[in-house]
Amino acid sequence: DSWKIEEGALVTAGPRSHLFYEGEVMDHDFKNFEFMADVKTEPGSNSGIYIHTEFQKEGWPAKGYECQVINTAIPGGENKMTGSIYAVRNTWKAPVPDNEWFNYRIKVQGKTIQTFINGELVAEYTEPDEIYRTEGMKGRVLSSGTFAIQCHDPGSVVYYKNIRVKPLPDDLPSAGTPPEDLDFEKKLIMAHTYGFPLIDLHVHLKGGLTREEALAHARKYGFNYGLAVNCGLKMGYETDAALNEYLDQYEQSPLTWHAMQAEGREWVELFSPETVSRFDYVFTDAMTWTNDDGKRMRLWIPEETEVGDPQDFMDQLVDRIEKIVSTEPIDIYVNPTYLPDEISDRYDELWTIERMDRVIRVLAENQVALEINNRRQIPSPAFIKRAKEAGVKFTFGTNNGGADDLGRMEYAIAMIEECGLGSGDMWMP
């Protein structure tokens, strides 16, 4: 009851079921191969393609890997999107929309799995010698086996056609490099298994870093990136015309989001709402503002910054943050709680509970997300915990200066456990 044929396509349409290949090719026991199918999903549908698996009468196949098929993120539900190597290296952004045919290719060579959607490499994973899997996922390892297509539930309607497989020689070497830091790999696997979205929404293509290099770096860990462009006075694009010219020429990868980093307080006058709306989201910080003496300061540049009395400076800073968050049309407050080098060693003293709560309150009231910044390792765990209690949503961001400091989101990933964050605490574009 879960399967039917319509116009030459295999269609999932019923209770949970898995359709296994048990034919004569390779005696349905494949090791290295290229699998290909054309797939189409209806909105809200969930399915998957299992590899290196074996026939199982009921339940989810325990052996082998699942390559995910889902193009609608379900709030509070499944967020591992099409192209994910399920629970091992997920992609958190659907690379294709529902109701459109797309080509799905899966390649296994040695200890490496790769998934391609419409020819673009989406996910890649090479098994290390020591493999960590959570309970219930111990069978997610490479060996050999057959294929299975998943009918997930009666509400999931997914179409498959032109299903093909090309066996490859068994002695081919692995196409990728396995992870070396197995302690960090364990943290990644836990996040991928439990569906915690590993997304860095504050990445810059600067310092020679190309989009292709950024995507390769993201695949290594199962991240997705939001690529941001600086917009504001003395910071990147300064006029509406220049920004629109850039946007007209920009070619966005289906695996990334595109962000406007709004610089300074003048940006709301420099750019029209129509231009701003062409981005997937907008963020800003409180690192550029004018003090009570009329001096415009960029806090990361010592010669442009006047701290004076630290307590008075902090009062002005918190006041500016409140005004920025409550009056500027932003989605995320980034580089949060940043202090100039002159007083950064007094962070815990100067960021008092009263000051933290003022910032947290204005974020919650205006439904602006709070960035957990990897590069600067801010805000503090104490700040994050208080913000979580107040219902503030979070994002992860790095604000890299180039390729060398893109990093692995270590601070943000550490905060997941230390601050008790769940996927429901995260803001998504």
Structure characteristics:
single chain; 429 residues; seven-stranded parallel beta sheet; alpha/beta; Jelly Rolls; seven-stranded antiparallel beta sheet; 20 strands; elongated; 22% helix; TIM Barrel
Structure notes:
It contains 10 helices and 20 strands. It starts with a strand and ends in an 11-residue tail after the last helix. The protein has helices spanning 182-193, 211-221, 240-249, 267-270, 273-276, 310-327, 347-350, 353-366, 381-389, 410-418; strands at residues 3-6, 9-12, 17-20, 33-41, 46-53, 65-70, 102-109, 112-117, 120-126, 146-151, 158-167, 199-203, 224-232, 256-263, 281-284, 288-290, 296-298, 332-333, 369-373, 394-397. The strands form 4 sheets. The chain has a 7-stranded antiparallel sheet with strand order 1-2-11-4-7-8-9, with no helix packed on it. A 7-stranded parallel sheet has the order 12-13-14-15-18-19-20. A 4-stranded antiparallel sheet has the order 3-10-5-6, with no helix packed on it. It has 429 residues and is of the alpha/beta class. The chain folds into 2 domains: 3-180, Jelly Rolls (Sandwich), CATH 2.60.120; 196-425, Metal-dependent hydrolases (TIM Barrel, Alpha-Beta Barrel).
Gist of the model:
With 429 residues, this protein is α/β, with parallel strands linked by helices. 22% of the residues lie in helices and 27% in strands. The chain has two domains: 3-180, Jelly Rolls; 196-425, TIM Barrel, CATH 3.20.20.140.
How would the blueprint of this fold be written?
Elements: E1 3-6, E2 9-12, E3 17-20, E4 33-41, E5 46-53, E6 65-70, E7 102-109, E8 112-117, E9 120-126, E10 146-151, E11 158-167, H1 182-193, E12 199-203, H2 211-221, E13 224-232, H3 240-249, E14 256-263, H4 267-270, H5 273-276, E15 281-284, E16 288-290, E17 296-298, H6 310-327, E18 332-333, H7 347-350, H8 353-366, E19 369-373, H9 381-389, E20 394-397, H10 410-418
Parallel strand pairs: 12-13, 13-14, 14-15, 15-18, 18-19, 19-20
Antiparallel strand pairs: 1-2, 2-11, 3-10, 4-7, 4-11, 5-6, 5-10, 7-8, 8-9, 16-17
Helix pairs in contact: 6-8
